[in-house]
Design brief:
The protein is an alpha+beta fold. 44% of the residues lie in helices and 11% in strands. It is built from 23 helices and eleven strands. Strands 5-9-8-7-6 form a five-stranded antiparallel sheet. The protein has a four-stranded mixed sheet with strand order 3-1-2-4. The chain has a two-stranded antiparallel sheet with strand order 10-11. β6 and β7 form a beta hairpin. The chain is globular and about 65 Å long.
Length: 523
Amino acid sequence: MTFMDDMLNNHEQCYRALAAHDARFDGRIFVGCKTTRIYCRPICRVRLPRPENVDFYPSAAAAEAAGFRPCLKCRPELAPGSAVMDAAGQLAHRAALLMEADPLDCSLEEVAAQLGITARHLRRVFEQEYGTSPQQFLQTRRLLLAKNLLTDTKLPVTEVAYAAGFGSIRRFNDSFKSHYRLSPSRFRKDGLRSQAGLPQVPGGGKANRGEASDTITLLLGYRPPLDFAGILGFLAARTIDGVESVCADSYLRAVRLQRDGQVFSGWLAVRPAARRDALAVSVSTSLLPVLSAVLARLRCLFDLDCQPDLIHEHLSSMDNLRPAAGEPGASINILGVRVPGCFDAFEMATRAILGQQVTVKAARTLANRMAVELGEPLRTPFAELTRTFPSAECIAALPEPVADILGPLGVTGTRARAIRALAEALTSGYIELSPAADAPQSMQRLLELPGFGPWTVQYVAMRALHWPDAFPHGDYGVKLALKRLLGSAEHPPPKQILALAEDWRPWRSYATMNLWKSLSSGE
């Protein structure tokens, strides 16, 4: 039984978290008020109900299955998710990610097949983790995405219905009335009154009520604190010209996604939302058919489902990494540290290959050349965004020898063949690189590819697989940080590094970020 299982079985503890508006439990418990039949997040600031009038649930779907409708004030659709590490929880978590990324063309049997289990077993582990069935979870995610769009955008209701994964407007209306006992228009009226706090789209047009007709802006919530500036700094050093850009407090990106054989291209911009624990995401309406996938990738990119308090407590031993005679200094274990994920796994993994044994700047130069030579041109409102990075399908279709094409760009033959092998493995389905993948299996298969050593595999696992326990122990930055922190004359040997890191499981990816940050902070 996990900590959250114990927590949910203890009504008194849950009520204390609600009374304290404790953000640590946001997205981990939901409270249903039996007198109003409304469910809220624990951070909700409405009048506190009496203890006997509330029940607690492990997910929004479980609360809705019990007959509660979402609060219009705290907005459960903005609650962050959770990273799960136990075996059964991982299966349910991966299934949830698959359903959230594609709620329209998703069936229980297909999800179970992708996970390599039976639909019956999936229903069992899902009920155990989320307190409801996969079908109810999927329906709730569709409804909450629709509620988000109704509240934060002026999209026509028909477009909202299809973007949220409903096959028809009639089904959409019936679902709202049966689940929430309210019409979709009610959420729109309430939403228009709360849109004023959302920021402008970087580079010009207004968000929401004043937004351009080809742009929508909505919110993605997280548990504070979030070092957004730190994530932007990490991404800025690795941006690919024309494909992405970091400017001021915003991240801009060109997007090209495929769905059912159709290609959807557009752009997005992300920046903090004022006075909210959320990011404001502006998206071109050309991406509406793949909106769920876009939002899922952004949650990974900015690690929005991180549980900072849990990770910070677990990594507390990192502050012992100092020479015995050393002076005390700033904490190495940073509260709110995040692991930047990726938006495009093939693009990120290709950059990792190009970055083997060269500087970050050199790898970026090579990636820029690949984007210019092989990427697709794209028109956007931003001068910084002009193209998309070549897809795995594009690289897999290049004639052999691939070194003759990538070589003139400065890519060595070994790395060219590694990039081609990765593209073929992804397009054939032999390897999956996403947070919903079986991480240990994907890591093992990556090791089988030419040009993939332990460092590359662990780094890709950190960012593309969003695996919290990845640890590139051979990384130069990791070794240099530990050398400084331990007061050693030389880099510590691999065995010592791995032994130290045992205490950091299962959050070694976050420990790695702490070590890298210690270098820039002067530790």
